[in-house]
Design goal:
Layout (H helix, E strand, L loop, with lengths): L2 H30 L1 H5 L2 H29 L6 H34 L4 H4 L2 H24 L3 E4 L4 E4 L5 H54 L5 H43 L8 H24 L2 H45 L5
Antiparallel strand pairs: 1-2
Helix pairs in contact: 1-3, 1-9, 1-10, 3-4, 3-6, 3-9, 4-6, 4-7, 7-8, 8-9
Length: about 350
């Protein structure tokens, strides 16, 4: 096995482990915290989490098997089923990210009317659309036998037809698929999150003006306090930019190499380097490992829920330990009473 294959195998194992653990943790927080379940974005996050978990359990292990063995994983029908799931889950997760960005945009730009604009019924309708959108492309690919094992990606995924007419149809299908998924979601993410960033910077400027006016009035304030206030203003502006860059950047970095490679592949006459194909596929998989941190686990509500779960588990274990110690103490005292009873000539009872 070459060094590149070892490196790609290690990368896939790392992505699978992180993706499974982080998404399971998000699911536990969702089930544990009733407040998260009541929120409308919780439905989108739950859908995204299930898509990531199913992708981690179906497509990722088979890609790892393909890299390690350089062989077709399973039978033809099994690979078609996995390829169907790969197309459906990837498309569904992308659209869930777009739904989350629209929800954040409404919450920030229209905070007073958010609950009347975005309700659970609207979220269910949006999720139904993501499922119909994803199923339509997946069913078309499966019915036309455009899913199977792709050697360049070592995966059960979309693959070219052999006939010239089929190749033309597949090229049109691929362009339409990526235009209505990757390109559409990229535009939605950029428009919504940039508007959110604009509103956040406007509020930061208002806070900065009030802070500076307060500092001017407080002439006796210590210079160190004034410096800390100015540093907090700078951190506040950077925090908003960093969050927006994370939302858009992770999506573009993870998916764009794979999507661009799939489009360029349509016009190539010779197969490209399979190591590059597996690397692009691994980057697309890595989005499933990033999503729990980007959308959930780094937020205060989820961190607090995780700490509450850990504290509850530790408290329960400490209670079990104290009960065990009390039982051991009772046994020891009973033994000592029995020994003293023997020495003084009294019965043990």
């Amino acid at each position: 096995m070459h060094t590149a294959e070892l490196a790609l195998s290690f990368l896939l194992i790392l992505i699978i482990v992180v993706s499974v653990l982080s998404n399971v943790l998000v699911l536990i927080c969702f089930l544990y915290n009733a407040e998260i379940r009541k929120q409308v974005p919780g439905l989108f996050i739950l859908n995204l989490t299930f898509c990531n978990l199913l992708l981690s359990a179906s497509s990722m292990p088979l890609t790892l098997f393909g890299v390690l063995s350089n062989a077709h994983p399973g039978g033809h029908v099994f690979c078609q089923v996995v390829g169907f799931l790969d197309t459906f889950l990837t498309t569904n997760s992308m659209l869930s990210m777009a739904a989350l960005s629209i929800d954040r945009w409404v919450a920030v730009v229209f905070p007073l009317s958010y609950h009347s604009r975005i309700r659970h019924r609207d979220a269910v309708i949006a999720l139904a659309y993501t499922w119909v959108h994803s199923l339509s492309f997946s069913v078309v690919a499966a019915c036309l036998s455009w899913v199977g094992y792709h050697q360049q990606y070592a995966s059960c995924t979309l693959c070219n037809g052999r006939a010239v007419h089929a190749k033309t149809q597949f090229a049109i299908y691929t362009l339409v698929l990526h235009s209505l998924t990757f390109l559409l979601v990229s535009v939605v993410l950029c428009v919504t999150y940039l508007k959110v960033l604009k509103v956040a910077r406007f509020h930061c400027k208002r806070i900065d003006v009030i802070t500076m006016q307060t500092l001017v009035l407080l002439v006796d304030i210590h210079p160190s306090v004034r410096q800390r206030c100015l540093e907090e203003q700078k951190r506040r502006r950077q925090r908003a930019t960093r969050k927006i860059s994370t939302f858009i950047g992770t999506f573009v970095v993870c998916f764009s190499p794979y999507v661009i490679t799939r489009i360029v592949e349509l016009f190539l006459t010779e197969p490209f380097n399979p190591y590059w194909g597996v690397l692009c596929k691994s980057l697309a998989y890595s989005k499933a490992a990033c999503d729990p941190f980007v959308y959930s686990l780094l937020r205060h509500q989820y961190r607090k829920t995780c700490s509450d779960i850990i504290n509850r588990l530790m408290k329960r274990s400490s209670l079990n330990g104290s009960r065990h110690q009390q039982q051991n103490g009772k046994i020891v005292r009973a033994k000592e009473i029995g020994k003293h009873g023997d020495v003084e000539g009294r019965p043990k009872d």
